[in-house]
TrEMBL record:
Residues 8-284, 285-407 form the Aconitase/3-isopropylmalate dehydratase large subunit alpha/beta/alpha domain. Keywords: Iron, Iron-sulfur, Lyase, Metal-binding. Residues 367-390 are annotated as: Disordered. Its EC number is 4.2.1.3. It catalyses: citrate = D-threo-isocitrate. Pfam families: Aconitase, Aconitase_C. GO terms for molecular function: aconitate hydratase activity. Monomer. PANTHER family: ACONITATE HYDRATASE B (PTHR43160), ACONITATE HYDRATASE, MITOCHONDRIAL (PTHR43160:SF3). The keyword Glycoprotein does not apply. It comes from Ornithinibacillus salinisoli. Residues 370-379 have a biased composition (Polar residues). Residues 524-581 form the Aconitase A/isopropylmalate dehydratase small subunit swivel domain. This is aconitate hydratase.
Length: 650
């Protein structure tokens, strides 16, 4: 039987289940990726599991999110992470080494392997012929401990690329075109696989850009072939021996088919406040901007900075514009310096920041109130930038640089200059000085974890109750993101290892009273929230499930869920339910009380059952999508209790 690349990767790593779309499968995980906004909990979970040593081929902990050291919280946690990587046998990427996704691609990614990361943009490494997926931290902790990763078998969405990108159009515009066509739910339950003659003109880093923002389509992952371009990239990184060819069989088929002619794409932009709100740049040209920002895992390549540098070279940015340059890896920054591109950016008025996630996650570079920010980042969810009432547009480096020169959103094709064609350095820098290799086991087993005062253990969770009588504390609309459930940014993320403190920020963008109201329900049986479509889109941060659970959330009832957040809710014992009849959403109001008796048996016996609305003589038919394994996890109150009961890491 002819197989596509996704099917080959899954078949090679399948340890349980059948490759039938929608069925739960278990996959062997070869590599893991954690970053500091999520990794602190992962390391605490590994400690709680009594893990002796990582059982993966390679696991890496990156420090790239929480780089601002305004007090001791972040540096204390950096020391904790360093000690944990030494103890458990992980790679450790130090602060300043760069963003996890491009650094992993440069140093550790291998074609044919599986990669699981506690960051939703882990899918970026699908550019290397890997099955790379984001997940909640506890799932990654279990993978590090040698357990399979469980996910519903995706459908494979084959996208045939033809043609070649015109001048002033780049890889960011390719993924924008797909978001324009399909919006933020278009990839749910699917792996996107690219093939066709158009691939020849896309570099490995171009593919990274496209794969990265597959997360914004809601996809389980994005897969590119491992072809001669990937071989070239690994050769330049001094890792040609890690290359293996991986392409679809000649007669391979796909569950969904689409064609994209690269020659027909124009400069595109995502308007506030969703990556799916895409229009041609020309439609919003002339809109004034306060900030233009180049960098992030969504545009991490040498050419992404170099083309911006060439556009602004020997010119000066417009008055009143903050032109922020956020390098994505120390290795790449060195090359940009060598090629004089940093000098061009600085001479034009650019502001150079350290290699890391920075403003993408709201860690610095927050825009002024009431002003427009133009960014090459992957997301523009409300408040993600660090400014609560923000107005963030997403674009390509070409559009960002052109707009920095004019002070307003500008179609780069209108600039009075030839399109600058940049090439990667002939001998790119290979820098491993800030990537520490795992310690030998005999040395590692004697390492003690360094815990600062900001680290608090995860509280114990009780089992799922058999009877509920719980109020609906929030009723929300569609596309609620994890940034809205629990914000990122410099105010919040330093408490990533302190659940009681970080929970104070829960749902604050939606309702500032939620924290206290939720806390008041903890000893009274808890509460529920109601939402629309695509609930929990965005970041994989498990804090967005764990903090509401800490505040008493027992049931999330919505029209449908984003994949990773749904899994995180299950992992922490929050029952994720959907409406059987979506119009029943309109029957519920904030303050209504949901009731059920014999709940444990109802969950076990079938996927559908009724909830009553107290005092209204109404029955709401609901559905869960839990596998038998997940039902067991839910009944025990979450995966930590389940792990302890199974003693799977001992």
């Amino acid at each position: 039987m002819a197989l596509n690349i996704t099917q080959k990767l899954i078949k090679d790593h399948l340890v349980s289940g059948e490759m039938t779309p929608g069925r739960e499968i278990g996959l062997k995980i070869d590599q893991t990726l954690t970053q500091d906004a999520t990794g602190t909990l992962v390391m605490l979970e590994l400690e709680a599991m009594d893990l002796d040593r990582a059982k993966t081929e390679a696991s890496a902990q990156y420090v790239d999110h929480n780089l601002i050291q305004e007090d001791s919280k972040n540096p204390d946690d950096h020391l904790f992470l360093h000690s944990a990587t030494r103890r458990f046998g992980l790679y450790h990427s130090r602060p300043g080494n760069g963003v996890s996704h491009p650094v992993h691609m440069q140093r550790l990614a291998k074609p044919g392997k599986t990669l699981l990361g506690s960051d939703s943009h882990t899918c970026a490494n699908g550019c290397m012929g890997m099955l790379a997926m984001g997940a909640g931290g506890i799932d990654v902790a279990l993978a590090i401990a040698g357990e399979p990763f469980y996910v519903k078998m995706p459908r494979v969405w084959g996208i045939k690329l033809t043609g070649e990108l015109p001048d002033w159009v780049s890889a960011k515009d390719v993924i924008f075109e797909l978001l324009r066509r399909h919006d933020v739910k278009g990839g749910v339950g699917k792996v996107i696989e690219y093939y066709g003659p158009g691939l020849k003109s896309l570099s490995a880093m171009d593919r990274h850009v496209i794969a990265n923002m597959g997360a914004e389509l809601g996809a389980t992952g994005t897969v590119f072939p491992s072809d001669n371009e990937i071989k070239r990239f690994l050769r330049e990184q001094g890792r040609e021996d890690d290359w293996t060819e991986l392409v679809a069989d000649k007669d391979a088929t796909y569950d969904i088919n689409e064609e994209l002619n690269l020659s027909e794409i124009e400069p595109l932009i995502a308007k506030p406040s969703s990556p799916g709100n895409v229009v041609p740049v020309k439609d919003v040209a002339g809109t004034p901007i306060y900030q233009s920002y180049v960098g992030s895992s969504a545009n991490p390549g040498f050419r992404d900075f170099a083309v911006a540098a060439e556009i602004v070279k020997d010119k000066h940015i417009a008055d009143g514009v903050s032109f922020d340059i956020n390098p994505t890896s120390r290795q790449m920054l060195t090359d940009l310096v060598k090629e004089s591109h940093i000098a061009s950016l600085l001479s034009a008025g650019g502001r150079l920041h350290q290699a890391g996630c920075n403003g993408c996650i709201g860690m610095g570079q927050a825009p002024a109130s009431g002003k427009n920010s133009l960014r090459t980042t992957p997301r523009n969810f409300p408040g993600r930038s660090g400014t609560r009432e923000d107005s963030v547009f997403l674009c390509s480096p070409e559009t960002a640089a052109a707009s920095a020169l004019t002070g307003k959103i500008t179609d780069p094709r209108t600039l009075d200059m030839k399109y600058p064609r940049v090439k990667d350095p002939k001998n790119p820098t290979i820098d491993v000085n800030l990537l520490d290799e795992p310690l030998p086991y005999e040395e590692a087993k004697n390492v003690k974890l360094e815990k600062g005062p900001n680290i608090a253990s995860i509280p114990e969770m009780d089992e799922m109750p058999d009877k509920i009588e719980i109020p609906i504390l929030l009723k929300m609309g569609d596309n609620i993101s994890t940034d809205e459930i629990l914000a990122g940014g410099a105010r919040v993320l330093p408490y990533r290892s302190n659940l009681p403190e970080i929970s104070k920020f829960t749902f604050e963008i939606i309702d500032e009273t939620y924290y206290q109201r939720g806390k008041d329900t903890v000893d009274k049986g808890g509460h529920a929230v109601v939402g629309g479509f695509n609930y929990g889109q965005g970041s994989s941060r498990e804090h967005a499930a764990l903090a509401p659970r800490y505040l008493g959330l027992r049931v999330a009832l919505v029209k449908d869920f984003a994949r990773i957040h749904w899994q995180n809710l299950v992992n922490f014992g929050v029952l994720p339910l959907t409406f059987v009849n979506e119009e029943n959403y309109d029957l519920l109001e904030q303050g209504d009380v949901l009731e059920a008796t014999g709940l444990r048996e109802k969950v076990k016996q079938g996927n559908e059952f009724n909830l009553s609305v107290k005092g209204k003589n109404q029955e709401i038919k609901v559905r869960h999508a839990l596998s038998p394994r997940q039902i067991d996890i839910m009944l025990k109150g979450g995966i930590i209790n389940w792990v302890k009961d199974k003693k799977i890491t001992s």
